[in-house]
Amino acid sequence: MNQQQWQSHVRVYEKSSQSKRAYTRKHNLNYSQFLYWYRKLTEQTPVSVTPNFVPVVIKPPTATTENLGILAFPNGIKLVINSPVLLTQIPGLLDL
């Protein structure tokens, strides 16, 4: 079956009061194929719609030579933090 035939079935179905399953049974159509063509023919996005994009500049995180913080654990291990990115992630890690 070609696209024009499916378009015809979709138009007739939309004017009917039947469910998709009942319509496909009545017209001896494959239900899965009907669903595929129904979606393809009714959910097309208009060509004239242009999404609005906003340019975003992402700067790489800068490491500093200064210590922003030190975590000292009871076993003697120390974690020296010199990255602002790592510093912002620490509160979430403490909740684990």
TrEMBL record:
Superkingdom, natural source: Bacteria
Designated name of the protein: Transposase
Organism: Microbulbifer epialgicus
Highest classification ranks of the organism: Bacteria, Pseudomonadati, Pseudomonadota, Gammaproteobacteria, Cellvibrionales
